[in-house]
Structure formats: C-alpha cells, structure tokens
Amino acid sequence: MEEINVLLDLVGEFFVEKFREEIAMQGHNNTKTLIETMRFETNGVDTIDVYMQDYAKFVDSGIRPGKKVSVYALIEWIEQKGIATGEKEVKGMAFAIRKKIEQEGSPTSNAYNFSDNGRRTGFIQLVISEQSKFVLSLIREELGTFSSGFFDNVIKTNRNIFLQNE
Q1: Which residues of 81-120 are buried (b: 16+ CB within 10 A; e: fewer)?
Q2: Strands of the chain, DSSP E
Q3: Number of domains in the chain
Q4: Which end of the chain, N or C, is surrounded by fewer C-beta atoms within 10 Å?
C-alpha cells in the first residue's frame, strides 16, 4: 500500500507542476497567487484532488461576453501590473477594461499579447489530455500490468479527478 501512496504523491506533484507551467506560459502569473497556492491531496487509495484558488475556473474557461467583472479586482490587477498610476487613471483604466470584457468576454483579443504559447484558457483539460498517457505509462511501469487495469478504471470512472477547486 505504501507504493500506491508514493505513486499518487508523484502523480499529484507532476500534474500540479504541469498546471503551474501552463498557467505561466499562458501569462496568468501576475501575482503568482494561483501558481503558489495550488496543491493536491490524495486519499492513499485511488484519488488525487488538486486544489486551486476559486478564480482558477475563470482563468481556465474565460468569461462570456455580457458579464460584468469586479472593478475592484481590476483596480487591484492594474496596480499590481503597474500599468497605470494615480487613483483617477487606475479607476478609468479599470472601467475601460471592464467594458471591453463585457463586450468581448475574457480573454479579450489584446490578452493574447501576454501569452508565451498563444493560449489564454483551457489549462486544466490541456494538461490532463497531454499528460495522461505519459502518467499512465509510468504507473503501468511502476505497478506492472496487473495494476494498469485498476488505474485505467479509476481514471474512466473519475474523469474530474484533477478538477477539484478550493
């Protein structure tokens, strides 16, 4: 049983690191809060839960047009980025960005300028789909063919295994 705990920890660490890498490549690392607070837990048997800040769902799926976002969150983001100074200029920019997001949704067309890989959404599914075969091959190698059917079944029955949000 100890081997499964070690293996689950390795897989959890691997996926968290890949999520972090993809988030950074997409340009969502302004404060590093999302990256630094991401963590995982296992039940020691068959489950890995990855926890992220609540706003990760918006980073992952974007925001549809017509939705108003928080001006206060935008003010904080503008100040952290240092793209405007002075209360009046920061507030004006926050309202302009809010209007753009309301019109276009998020990510906006200009947001792609911050991406190193041309993507701004979909980090969760992308990492899972790109890395699952690799992880399964490592599991099979480590536990042998007897266990591979077990883990294949776990993944099939728990498709959202890595999508837990905090």
Answers
A1: eeebeeeeebeebbeebbeebbeeebbbeebeeeeeeeeb
A2: 39-42, 48-51
A3: 1
A4: N
Q: How many residues does the chain have?
A: 166
pLDDT, tens digit (0-9, with 9 covering 90-100), for 5-34: 788 888 899 999 999 999 999 999 878 889
Q: Quote the domain boundaries for residue 27.
A: 1-62+126-166
pTM, full prediction: 0.76
CA distance 27 to 4: 35
Pairing of strands 48-51, 39-42: antiparallel
Give the CA dihedral 86, 91, 92, 98, nearest 10 degrees. Answer: 150
Residue pair 22/120 in contact by the 8 Å Cβ criterion: no
Summarize pLDDT for 92-125 with one digit per residue, the tens.
999 999 999 999 999 988 889 989 999 999 999 9
| Residue 11, domain member (yes or no) | yes
